[in-house]
Amino acid sequence: MSDQANDLPNGWKGCLVVAQSSEDPYLAPFTGGGRLASSFVLIPRSEPPRLGYLSPMERQEAALSGLELLTPELLDMLRWSREGTPPDELWANVLSRALHLSSMSPGTLGIAGSLSAGLITGFSARLAGEGWFFEPAEPWLDLRRKLKSESELEGIRLAAQGTCAGFHRVAEVLRQAEIVGGLLRWADAPLTVGVLRREVALELCRHGLTQPCQNIIAPAEEGAVPHNTGTDERVLKAGESLVVDIFPKGRLFADCTRTFCVGPPGRKLEAGHRKVEEALELAESEAKVGVSGWHLQEVVCELLGRAGYPTPISEPGTTRGYVHGLGHGVGFELHELPSFRRHASEGEGQLEAGDVITLEPGLYDEAEGWAVRIEDLYVVGEQGLENLTPLPRSLDPQDWYS
Amino acid sequence: MSDQANDLPNGWKGCLVVAQSSEDPYLAPFTGGGRLASSFVLIPRSEPPRLGYLSPMERQEAALSGLELLTPELLDMLRWSREGTPPDELWANVLSRALHLSSMSPGTLGIAGSLSAGLITGFSARLAGEGWFFEPAEPWLDLRRKLKSESELEGIRLAAQGTCAGFHRVAEVLRQAEIVGGLLRWADAPLTVGVLRREVALELCRHGLTQPCQNIIAPAEEGAVPHNTGTDERVLKAGESLVVDIFPKGRLFADCTRTFCVGPPGRKLEAGHRKVEEALELAESEAKVGVSGWHLQEVVCELLGRAGYPTPISEPGTTRGYVHGLGHGVGFELHELPSFRRHASEGEGQLEAGDVITLEPGLYDEAEGWAVRIEDLYVVGEQGLENLTPLPRSLDPQDWYS
């Protein structure tokens, strides 16, 4: 999160972030790494944020934030729990108390953060009775989170290092695999997607990373549907494409994709891979401070379109060829600003020094049963991109060790 | 989720579950294990649920649900994305289309599931303009989720088996530890909380489990604040208590706690441990179909109070002695029904055959620097409890192998 002033949009009395866990990407930038369950941040206009939490057992975790605390005692939690107050009413009471303790007078608040929908519609209806109204605060908070602080960058670097280790493990297993009757074997057993997934999970675990959004290890036509995560039972085959997309989280996320092929690839896969590499290099050379994500998408679509592949610009909604956006920001969420969409505003879409982005061109053909995606993670700097996942890009795992 | 009929509360036209991921505990029971990002379930009165998803790349994952699908094509996603529709308006458009496609006429809907708060307040205000109003659906859905299906029970059993393996690994490391100058050493290095946490993570990983809510490995006075997760850098000491609370997730959660002590425990820790074991045995003997969670809490408070420890009944809000509830249901959420709270309704609080619960008495003294908690996970059956985490309860890791 950038160190901007408390520049609340006009008309807001303040901004409220509610969450059922400190893993919430809107709450996490405020907590300093402490683990909290139900909690919230209230940012009154022109004042520093304060952190509210509902369980007295979390007092030490809450203190890690360094923020002024709205404790369960100040929020009268014991009373609501003694009276058996239903959750949406309890949240209304707690937030009403927090607003009062912060000497705020009724009006409009920005709101963001994840709680179950019935709690939100319930407490917002109750607070409307006290004169409080809500506007979506995600756009404002997303912009604040776009530029990374040094400590946030450090979190992403650590996650990226573990991600690279995960890929080296994949390459090592694939390099060691034997081909028997067209199928891969490793450690005296069929090499399945599930085995590879376990090896990745163990390696990430050794680096203190988790996979809250899982991962994608998708062979052949499974990889050709970009969000297909791959079937664990499936035995890998020689000559087929294998898309491996790993996006683990430490305190923040990292994200990287490589495509492998054990044994000689088919002609179309090989040509697709060459073209995707070329597209990635082009995007890297064009990605500079002041350029928009959408511009990069256009440049890549132009290249891939010229090579005869359908693209989202030439054929909106296509599921063959290049079928998605070129990249996204990465931070407390796997997908955040900057945006690579056509309609992103300048603030949302323009690359600035301190942004963290992916670039991930790909080509897909479900009918022909192959896919290629190559994705790296970068910090945008005044001097150009810094690649946080500088791994080999070859299809052949043997090349990872030459 | 129990196989009840579509018994929507009176006055609702239907129920809507919105989610940013299929990990959402309100959405997950409907998905059949497929991985989805932004998605929703709509249950019209007297009709089967249908699953809506926003990304065409997730069509194979969505199909795993076996439900009728509201596809991105039916929901006009391409149009909203081409027009650069802001997210809260996009959700309003998509849901409005889903309601129309389901031939529903305006009125009240139950709502639950997690999306960021600004999206929810935004789309609900827009849909109010079309005559749709929302009531919290969590209470109704929580009750549906209380009794587990066979496939859900199987998911919990698998998670419990991995959890037990994690505890055996902890006991093994502690048993192998040497005491040097009062501090523990293992594998030629100081044995820290962080080292033990890594060993647990690796073992859980080998069993295909993740730790979305982390874990608690908390020595001495850190363990005495029940939600303190423990400091990684801290070197473990002989004679101190070590609370280890592991609650990993496969498709569903498991939850178990043991307290260890390497070397002879102090008198108070030993007495506390004996009393907590007694409290757990008492709770196990009282936990039967038809009994409420709150009754079990009363029984345990009575026992611990008689032994001279403050309890939440004798001293509401106490942070010394027994300081929390006795247990909770476990399923797609770590904490779900049945409820052990005083004000739980009969439906929420009463044990039924097919419930999955924890029982977890504990004693805490931050000033004296010790804590004990013992927690097991059970299926409630007509014939009594089935313990899914039947591990040794001794403080001494040597006893785990005798």
What does this structure look like?
- 2 copies of one chain form a homodimer.
- By secondary structure, the first copy, chain A, is α+β, with helices and mostly antiparallel strands.
- Chain A has 2 domains: 133 residues, Creatinase/prolidase N-terminal domain (Creatine Amidinohydrolase, Chain A, domain 1); 252 residues, Creatinase/methionine aminopeptidase superfamily (Creatine Amidinohydrolase, Alpha-Beta Complex).
- Chain A is 33% helix and 20% strand.
- The first copy, chain A, contains 12 helices and 18 strands.
- In chain A, the strands form 5 sheets. A 6-stranded mixed β-sheet of chain A has the order 4-3-2-1-5-7.
- In chain A, helix 4 crosses helix 5 and helix 7 packs antiparallel against helix 8.
- The longest helix of chain A is centred in the middle third of the chain and has 27 residues.
- The two termini of chain A are 40 Å apart.
- The model of chain A has no long low-confidence stretch (mean pLDDT 95).
- At the A-B interface, strand 1, helix 2, helix 3, strand 5 and strand 6 of A face strand 1, helix 2, helix 3, strand 5 and strand 6 of B.
| Oligomeric status | homodimer
Please give the alpha-carbon distance between the first and last residues of chain A. 40 Å
CATH superfamily of the largest domain in chain A: Creatinase/methionine aminopeptidase superfamily
Quickly name the level 1 CATH class of the largest domain in chain A. Alpha Beta
Q: What is the number of helices of chain A?
A: 12
Number of domains of chain A: 2
Overall geometry of chain A comes to: elongated
Largest sheet of chain A: 6 strands, mixed
Which strand order do you get reading across the main beta sheet of chain A? 4-3-2-1-5-7
